[in-house]
């Protein structure tokens, strides 16, 4: 099967991919919720920005128990977001503009409203319908205790009991029952889903929770033990591949099957990227050419604004990608984390949840300083070999909306964890397109999450054509990146002063970032682009604090 929109089978290796969270991108029908027609109407923004692809977070039918990651039907569009015809029109327009399209695939769990789970609820224990999920009898004399001590990511037990006494597994919310990937019907159905979207012109897939599909379901089920409250700690403490439900070796059989039977049957092959929260050495396995081909590098996102730490992460990430035969990935923000224009200004060791609970007041974050650091971090990221994943709104310099009133919060974390964790709504506030209007151009009426008045100054309309704006910086950087980028390696300068990152790329152009709080000597060379062009120090041969420059030979 040939897709004329994408002739280069390796387009993804050094692509810039723009993540669209559909419900917060653009609202075409005025119901306050972003939709597919809204995405289509704003695709010219992405084309003008200069990205290579857009990745759509889930747009499937969902009751939004987890922001759309509770999928009720994998081969349909949520009626609130549009129709399959709207999806096809969006893909066609994206391809006309030269943009690839990626979609989220959520294979670990379904919604509890999925027809399979509804069938399982109506079926007796031991039935074929229940075997598509993970049902077990409880422990204790009357089965009143959960089958294991496995915790939910969102707090509490990962098991919920039904009236008939059996328990089902949900590593996330109770509305997201985990599938049983030992069941061949489950595997076959997801092959069908991958083909369904590939046949509609989708160029690639982002695989949600890619490390959790396969569980050790041999009887008796294994407890995790004292570290159950923190599953990340236990993942590091157990022998690789032996965790009862995370990063098991058998999960790679699934991805090899996808590659062989679906992804590589298209011309060009469909790409895929794993969301796998695993140690770097294990992450390489997901990115192998005969599996998904690429995996997200979260070490970079989690690194602080520290030159030594970033250099170590960059060097290690490039080595991991090379070991897999893949290209590296870089990301600073997404729909699950505090936006980097705010996060990078938090002092090391800050409890981010406590900061959110204080409405972003303790410690305070200077928006101007945060934006300066975010711009420098972005220019550094875009100079690195590999693919950069950009989250909607970061091209506007949007900060986290940390002071959302608790009565408007939608993230299930708020309720699941007893109002002790504010959740992820602050990075999901709808985008501002214009400087006026009830939702700053997001739609004709109010948005599903309230936007602060400060968004007016960040709007696309306010920044378009404005020299020095963050939007224009992204546009310039992406245009220049296309001209400069070749090869997938870098060479660190041997004589960088403390607190400075300096490396050379193929073609002898260089990237220099000053992560200190004082100006440093600027290496010789033509300044091609600066994250702070109005700083003035460059004329004096100095690189200002929190600034990145690209230098010609």
Structure commentary:
By secondary structure, this protein is of the alpha/beta class. 28% of the residues lie in helices and 12% in strands. It is built from 18 helices and 17 strands. The protein has helices spanning 36-41, 43-49, 84-96, 115-122, 128-131, 184-199, 231-237, 251-261, 280-286, 298-302, 307-324, 340-343, 352-357, 367-383, 412-416, 455-458, 460-463, 470-484; strands spanning 16-20, 53-56, 100-105, 135-136, 159-161, 167-169, 204-207, 271-274, 329-331, 387-391, 490-492, 500-505, 510-514, 520-521, 527-530, 542-543, 547-551. The strands form four sheets. It has a seven-stranded parallel sheet with strand order 8-7-3-2-1-10-9. Strand 5 (159-161) and strand 6 (167-169) form a beta hairpin. The longest helix has 18 residues, at 307-324. It is globular, with a radius of gyration of 23 Å. The chain starts with 15 loop residues before the first strand and ends with a strand. The model is unreliable at 1-6 (pLDDT under 50).
């Amino acid at each position: 099967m040939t897709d004329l929109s994408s002739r280069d089978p390796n387009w993804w290796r050094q692509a810039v991919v723009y993540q669209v969270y559909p419900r917060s991108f653009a609202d075409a029908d005025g119901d306050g919720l972003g939709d597919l027609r809204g995405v289509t109407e704003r695709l010219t923004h992405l084309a003008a920005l200069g990205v290579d692809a857009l990745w759509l977070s889930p747009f499937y039918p969902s009751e939004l128990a987890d922001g759309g990651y509770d999928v009720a039907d994998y081969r349909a569009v949520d009626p609130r977001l549009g129709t399959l015809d709207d999806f096809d029109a969006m893909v066609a327009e994206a391809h006309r503009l030269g943009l690839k399209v990626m979609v989220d695939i959520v294979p670990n769990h379904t919604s509890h409203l999925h027809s399979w789970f509804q069938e399982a609820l109506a079926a007796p224990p031991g039935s074929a319908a229940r075997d598509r999920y993970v049902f077990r009898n409880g422990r204790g004399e009357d089965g009143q205790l959960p089958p294991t001590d496995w915790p939910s990511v969102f707090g509490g037990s990962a098991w919920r009991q039904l009236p008939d006494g059996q328990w089902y597994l949900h590593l996330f919310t109770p509305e997201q029952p985990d599938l049983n990937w030992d069941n061949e019907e489950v595997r076959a159905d997801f092959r069908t889903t991958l083909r369904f979207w590939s046949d509609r012109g989708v160029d690639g897939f982002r695989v949600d929770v890619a490390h959790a599909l396969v569980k050790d379901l041999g009887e008796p089920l294994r407890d995790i033990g004292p570290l159950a409250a923190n599953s990340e700690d236990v993942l590091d403490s157990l022998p690789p591949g032996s965790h009862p439900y995370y990063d098991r070796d058998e999960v790679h059989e699934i991805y090899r099957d996808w590659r062989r039977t679906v992804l590589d049957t298209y011309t060009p092959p469909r790409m895929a990227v794993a969301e796998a929260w695993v140690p770097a050495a294990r992450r390489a396995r997901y990115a192998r050419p005969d599996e998904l081909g690429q995996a997200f590098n979260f070490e970079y996102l989690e690194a602080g604004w520290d030159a030594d730490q970033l250099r170590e992460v960059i060097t290690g990430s490039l080595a991991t990608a090379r070991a897999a035969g893949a290209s590296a990935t870089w990301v600073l923000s997404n729909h699950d984390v505090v936006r980097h224009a705010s996060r990078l200004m938090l002092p090391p060791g800050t409890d981010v949840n406590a900061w959110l609970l204080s409405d972003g007041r303790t410690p305070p974050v200077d928006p101007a300083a945060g934006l300066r650091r975010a711009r420098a971090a972005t220019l550094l990221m875009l100079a690195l070999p590999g693919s950069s994943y950009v989250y909607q709104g970061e091209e506007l310099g949007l900060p986290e909306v940390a002071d959302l009133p608790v009565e408007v919060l939608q993230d299930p974390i708020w309720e699941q964890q007893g109002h002790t964790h504010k959740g992820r709504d602050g990075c999901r506030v709808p985008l501002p397109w214009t400087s006026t209007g009830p939702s700053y151009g997001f739609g004709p009426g109010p948005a599903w999450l309230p936007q602060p008045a400060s968004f007016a100054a960040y709007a696309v309309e306010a920044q378009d054509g404005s020299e020095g704006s963050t939007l224009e910086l992204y546009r310039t950087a992406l245009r220049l990146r296309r001209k400069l980028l070749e090869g997938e390696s870098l060479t660190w300068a041997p004589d960088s002063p403390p607190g400075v990152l300096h490396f050379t790329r193929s073609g002898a152009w260089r990237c220099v970032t000053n992560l200190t709080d004082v100006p440093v000597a600027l290496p010789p060379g033509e300044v091609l682009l600066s994250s702070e062009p109005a700083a003035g120090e460059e004329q004096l041969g100095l690189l200002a604090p929190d600034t990145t420059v690209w230098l010609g030979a």
